[in-house]
Fold this protein.
Amino acid sequence: MRSKNLATMSLAFMACGFLITLFLPENLAVILLRGGFEAGLVGGIADWFAVTALFRHPLGLRIPHTSLLLKNRDKIIQSLITAMETELLNKESIENKLRKFGIMSMGSKLLTKFFSKKKARAQILEQLSEFVSRLPVEKAVPFLQKAASDYIREAELGVAADKIVTKLMNDGKDVAALDYALEGVSNWSGRPETKAMLGKIASEKLAEVKLGGLKGMAFQAFVGFMDADMLGEMLQGMLQSGIRDFREEDSPYREEIIREIRVALFQIVNDEARMASVKEWALNELEGEAATAFLHTQLENVRSKALSLLGEDRAAGGRKLFALYALLVRRISKEQEWIGSWEERIRASLIAFVEANHYRIGLLVKENLDSMDDASLVNMLEDKVGKDLQWIRVNGALCGFVVGLILTVVQFI
């Protein structure tokens, strides 16, 4: 410690000066210097004793009222704790500081500064990738299956199906489905192979018909006149004509079939036994091995896509991550009421934490000081305040020297 060395040097300088003046010829200057060095030596020794007595016994001698810090260790520690709890770090000052802080604003600035660094974004993306890669997706499958099964068991499928069917009908989806089916049947029936198939089926079925009398003769004549190709063409034309009639919006047949479709749908969704069987079927399928394998595959696909996106963004310097953060900040900044609400919640939580744990400051200080032995405590205090105390010794030697000069001059007057 430079100040301690300087203090020691000042005391040694006074001692050497005093000794030298003892052997010099007597004259006014020597007498003045001897008086100054003598008083400086006395002042330096007195201040050395005073400063040393604060921390330890001078020269190891157990002189009364020395080593004051160690003798009053408990009082000093308690005074320090009291000062910190009641003045330096009292609850009111901490709470007042917290009330002045814009917690959300400060947090936003820190996050923005953090996310603006390319290296920081790359580290976040790397950690996210590692986290995603380690996710045990196979353990998540049973939970997903159980959640879905519980939902299906508790769900009222009939009510849900009724709402869905009603919504579809209000949106005209039943009519659209009928038109789609008619379009498909029309395309199918117009094919040449369909005509051939219809003719063949009709020819085979007509051959199986057995009628007697004049009706039988007339029927046989008709069958003999019509070959499979003619029958197919006739049936194809009839089917095409019927489909065109069903596709006409003012066709009574169209309205009738739509009405029948709607009635059939509502009968299905309101059939409790049928809905119960559907629920049972869904549960069996959901809890089966096929569903387990399907869910596991889908989760693995999601993981692969997530890792791919994270890798691409990391290679691009985290631009998408920063864009996402900026989007969230802009969106949240518009919700001033929400921000104010959360700031008050956070502040209230911090104040409550301070009130509940303020006493721990004193406990922490006491525990740390109690864990130090006497030598460590003295060294710590000397390191913190000893520098200024050593200057007392220097000043004491200098002041003693000046006072000694003055007193010597006074003796001559």
